[in-house]
Amino acid sequence: MPIDLVALSTCTRCDLSLTRQRVVIGSGPASPALLVLGEAPGRSEDEGGEPFIGRSGQLLFRLLGEVGITRAECFVTNVVKCRPPNNRTPSAHELETCRPWLRAQLDDVRPRVVLALGNTAARSVFGYQQGIGLTHGRVTQLDSGPGLATYHPAAALRGGAAVLELMRADLQIVKSLVELP
Ligand code: URA
Question: Which pLDDT score is estimated for 144?
Answer without folding.
Answer: 87
